[in-house]
Amino acid sequence: MFGKFESFEFAAGAGGAGGGNSILSLVLPLVLMFAIFYFLLIRPQQKKQKTRNSMLSALKKGDKVVTIGGLHGTIMEISDDVVVLRVNDVTKLTFDRNSISHAISTSSAESDK
């Protein structure tokens, strides 16, 4: 009769080892999903933010820029967080530096003329 209990404990021990394998099968898809999200969403967004920050820090007086709202202008004054744009001969508008969408390169602006 004692032999039956031993076989029962052996079977319970075998089930415990299988439980470790099932935890791995639950965690592995989560790790895989995080890796996919990182390489498809998070990493490209970080690169885009880094290039945007470098573009904003490289702005200087006289650069032609486009705001997020689509307004084209030339930088007249620039500080750490404020940009004054000349829209036409008399109109000057003040914007936050973060509202600049992109700078227009001078070579493409000259080729349009």
Question: What helical percentage do the residues reach?
Answer: 55-70%
The radius of gyration over CA amounts to 31 Å
Please identify the structural class as seen in this structure: alpha+beta
**Gap from first CA to last CA:** 100 Å
Outline? rod-shaped
SSE arrangement, N to C: HEEEEEH
Oligomer: single chain
Largest sheet: 5 strands, antiparallel
Number of helices: 2
Low-confidence stretches: none
Major sheet strand order: 4-3-2-1-5
Strand-residue fraction?
15-25%
Protein name: Preprotein translocase subunit YajC
Main location: membrane
Pfam family, one: YajC
Subcellular location: Cell membrane
Features:
113 residues, 2 domains, 56% helix, 5-stranded antiparallel beta sheet, 23% strand, alpha+beta, SH3 type barrels
Quick summary of this structure?
The protein is of the alpha+beta class and 113 residues long. The chain is built from 2 helices and 5 strands.
Describe the structure.
A 5-stranded antiparallel β-sheet has the order 4-3-2-1-5. With 113 residues, it is an alpha+beta fold. The mean pLDDT is 83. It has helices spanning 2-57, 106-112, and strands at 64-67, 72-78, 82-86, 92-96, 100-104. It is 56% helix and 23% strand. It folds into 2 domains: 1-58; 60-112, SH3 type barrels (Roll), CATH 2.30.30.30. It is found in: Cell membrane. It comes from Paenibacillus albilobatus. The chain crosses the membrane at residues 23-42.
